Amino acid sequence: MADDQNMHLVIIRHGESEWNKLNLFTGWTDVDLTDTGRAEAAAGGKALKEQGFDFDVCYTSLLKRAIHTLNIVLDEMDRAWLPVHKTWRLNERHYGALQGLNKAKAAEEHGDVPQEDLPYTECLKDTIARAWPYFEQEIKPQLESGKRVLIAAHGNSLRALVMQLEHLTPEEILKVNIPTGVPCSYTFDKDWNILDKHYIGDPATIEAKINAVANQGKAKK
Questions:
Q1: Residue 105, number of CB atoms within 10 A of its CB
Q2: What is the C-alpha to C-alpha distance for residues 184 and 31, in angstroms, rounded to an integer?
Q3: Closest of 185, 161, 186, 163 to residue 174, by C-alpha
Q4: pTM value?
């Protein structure tokens, strides 16, 4: 599957967590996966294996919903022995006083506030400021040396990477909704141009998940 000239990266957002299910701002609260989340991670691992993906090194956050997602994916691929680097720099965006609040209720109380303006919180810009330098210093050299990399992390820490990799504006990245438990494959040339980007799995399921993520933060009418 690998072409020596190109670089291969797969990112996966953790499966549904206990607080995702309740539509709460989770942030750095260390909640675990639901049964659905574990099933999502297993399906992601199966899809990667079926499509012939393999990896040399993995990265995740310090939060168990991402760590357990990665473990499940690697188990499905029979790759539990792969080296895994864990860092707080890939943690979810810290929601401060909003952590534990229901997203729809918060939207009602604060209006449908643009995400970067939510009160008492780390904004996406702050998340980028910790996640992207880690990618540049630690992950980029691995990819440039020919290693195939898998990152299991969170909606906003992955958005921080996607924004930079795809050269998106702050407005554009806010419209990017990363589905839970669905691997996304990137192939880059040696100059970091994207040759291919695609989600791995059933297209209808992926579309439904993207729409579900997009609707989480809207005030209930």
A1: 13
A2: 23
A3: 163
A4: 0.80
Over residues 145-187, the pLDDT tens digits come to 999 999 999 988 999 999 999 999 988 988 888 888 999 999 9
What whole-number distance in Å separates Cα of residue 150 and Cα of residue 12? 8
Q: Is the pLDDT of residue 47 over 70?
A: yes
Would you call 40 a catalytic residue per the annotation?
Answer: no
Out of 14, 68, 94, 154, the active site residue is: 14
Q: How far is CA 214 from the centre of its chain?
A: 14
Q: Is 92 a catalytic residue?
A: yes
CB 94 within 8 A of CB 24: no
Catalytic residue among 16, 40, 76, 92: 92
